[in-house]
Design goal:
With about 150 residues, the chain is mainly α. About 70% of the residues lie in helices and about 0% in strands. Bound molecules: fe (ii) ion (2 copies). One fe (ii) ion binds near residues 24, 27, 28, 60 and 124.
């Protein structure tokens, strides 16, 4: 059966996700767009949507890993490990979805929807503060007014 919505929740951009460091905020808005697209995908479209997510995730995680390594961000190891764990699951799940195991793909998408807010709150926000502190000498002040970044 071709059911586009096996995950019940909609995943939308909210200004709660804004961290105040633009390169990461832009990347996070793209993350939300790509995940929303996966939530809408039919079974036939699912492997392609997961591929698109994998491409996004690689660029997204590479950017953050590079920022952490270049600036010697002290707690970088667990953050880099978490990115690697997500990439590993995505690669494994894409192979299973290609064999027709769509429910495993849907479960991964649901997990990503839950993973993102806590990863952003706990790990990405610390990196964004660190990056702003380095360039501006202070933590970013974020005024949240339901702004769309683009
Ligand atoms: Fe991120
Ligand atoms: Fe991250």
């Amino acid at each position: 059966m071709n059911s586009p919505h096996t995950t019940t929740e909609d995943f939308e951009w909210t200004d709660k996700f804004i961290l105040g460091y633009r390169p990461m905020d832009d990347m996070h808005q793209e993350f939300v767009e790509v995940v929303s697209k996966m939530l809408q995908a039919s079974d036939k479209e699912l492997a392609g949507a997961l591929d698109e997510f994998a491409q996004h995730a690689k660029v997204h995680f590479d950017l953050e890993n590079q920022l952490m390594e270049e600036t010697q961000f002290p707690p970088r190891d667990c953050h880099i490990d978490e990115h690697a764990a997500v990439m590993k699951s995505v690669t494994e799940v894409i192979a299973l979805v290609r064999e027709g195991q769509f429910e495993i793909g849907r479960s991964l998408i649901a997990e990503l929807v839950h993973w993102f807010p806590s990863h952003t709150d706990h790990l990405d926000s610390a990196l964004a503060h660190w990056m702003c502190k380095r360039s501006l000498g202070g933590k970013p002040v974020v005024l949240r007014r339901n702004l769309k970044l683009r």
